[in-house]
Amino acid sequence: MTKWLSILGAMVLLLPTFAVVSAAPPNPGSGESFISVQNLDPVDNVNIHAEYYNAATGIVDKTKDVWGVAPFATAGFAPRLIPDFPDNWMGSVVISADKEVAAVSSLVFTGGAIGGDGNTMGAYTSIPEGSTAVYLPSVGKRDREATWISVQNADVDPADVRIRFFDRDGVEIVAAVQDFTLQPGVQRTVKLFDIGGLPTNFLGAAYITSGKKVAAVATTHTGYDSDIVNGIVSGATKLYYPLIRRRQMGGGWHDYSGIVVQNFDTAASAEVHVYFYDRDGILKADFTDTIPALSSHGYNTRYVGNADPTEIDKLGLSYLGSAVVECTNGKLIGGIVKYENPRYALSAAYNAESAGRNNLFVPLACRRQFTPGVWYDSTGIIVQNLDAAASASVHVEFYDRATPPTKVAEFNDTIPANSSHGYNTRYYGNAPPSQIDGIPFDYVGSVRITSTNNKPLIGVVFTELQTDKGMYEYNGFVKDIP
Question: All domains of the chain, ordered by start, with CATH?
Answer without folding.
Answer: 11-230 (2.60.290.11), 238-351 (2.60.290.11), 359-479 (2.60.290.11)
